[in-house]
Design brief:
mainly alpha, ABC transporter involved in vitamin B12 uptake, BtuC, 76% helix, globular, membrane, transmembrane
Length: 341
């Protein structure tokens, strides 16, 4: 390897890290009340210009930014992992029933127990995501051929359709449940608190560990099941570990910020382009971390735009991501044929 080629990954890490830090600073600075970056820096160092700035930065924007970082990283990782496991470039975490399971569980929690706070129903959302994904996994492994990418995707689509119908049936008969569910389903970082982030961190840490440890096996799976098996990969164990990681990452993220569409779908494609430009190729040991950095960049940018576009009224980040993600994904599809991804 030449010296210039060896420097490429280092330069990539530096650029991604710089971009993420700059976006975090913007997230702390911009909103209904804009705060100059120098005042934000002074506040973070313990020397705020006044109490109002201290309260805005530490009580509202630091938790919000931290939640955007963690939830975005989780959705980016789970999206890249989902596409690798199913070998389907159109796959995202929702294909395993994660979003549909969380949505149905939250509606039931609101309907049956009257829960309205995020910390009140986060555990219901996570349990629903786990249950739905388990059903998808069990359905996908039925039959003589065992668990295959096609069967897993088909099982996910079927379970998602069923749970979405049940969710609609509940919310349409209860206006109160509809109001609470509608705000959550738009996808927002606006309800973030320090305790929200702390509740989510264990799921992110364990899910990220499982996902990143799958990376070498995912490189083998990309060559086909037969080749991967001949290389000594235990396909069932790898897919089970991947499904658990997706449930932990996407289930936790969906529970705390709602189902943000396009993030887990678009970001892995962008990560492949970045890795290709850096000369890293389709190596999941790089694709997964790159996805974990690009996703929070996009989510935080969407959140910033949502704060500014109609301030002081905020537009949920999930809506902005959909506006950004749709055209961006169309551009990706036009640039590269899906069969070649």
């Amino acid at each position: 390897m030449t010296r210039s080629a060896a420097l490429r990954p280092t330069l990539l890490v530096a650029l991604l890290g710089t971009a993420l830090l700059a976006i975090c600073l913007l997230s702390l600075s911009l909103g209904a009340r804009s705060i100059p970056p120098i005042e934000v820096a002074r506040t973070l160092l313990g020397h705020p210009p006044d109490q109002d700035v201290h309260d805005i930065v530490w009580s509202a924007r630091v938790p919000r930014t931290a939640l955007g970082l963690t939830a975005g990283a989780a959705l980016g990782l789970s999206g890249a992992l989902m596409q690798a496991l199913t070998r389907n470039p159109l796959a995202d975490p929702g294909i395993l029933g994660v979003s549909a399971g969380a949505s149905f569980a939250i509606v039931l929690a609101i309907e049956l127990f009257g829960l309205g706070s995020l910390l009140g129903y986060i555990w219901f959302a996570f349990a629903g995501a786990m249950a739905a994904s388990l059903v998808v996994y069990l359905l996908g492994r039925t039959g003589r051929s065992g668990l295959t990418p096609v069967k897993l995707a088909l099982a996910g689509v079927a379970v998602t359709a069923l749970l979405s119908s049940l969710t609609s049936a509940v919310v349409l008969t209860d206006p109160d449940a509809l109001d609470r569910y509608r705000f959550w389903s738009a996808g927002s970082l606006g309800t973030a608190t320090g305790s929200t982030v702390l509740h989510f961190l264990p799921f992110l840490a364990l899910g990220a560990l499982l996902a990143l440890s799958c990376a070498p096996a995912l490189n083998s799976l990309a060559l086909g099941d037969d080749v991967a098996a001949s290389l000594g990969r235990r396909l069932g164990l790898v897919r089970f570990q991947g499904v658990v990681a997706i449930v932990l990452l996407a289930g936790g993220a969906v529970a705390v910020i709602g189902p943000v569409v396009f993030l887990g779908l678009v970001v892995p494609h962008a990560a492949r382009i970045v890795a290709q430009q850096a000369g890293l190729g389709p190596d999941h040991r790089w694709l997964l971390p790159i996805s974990a950095v690009l996703a929070p960049c996009l989510l935080l940018l969407a959140d910033i735009v949502g704060r500014l576009v109609e301030r002081p009224i905020e537009v949920q980040a999930g809506i902005i991501v959909a506006f950004i993600g749709g055209p961006f994904f169309i551009a990706l599809v036009r640039r590269r044929r899906l069969a070649e991804i």
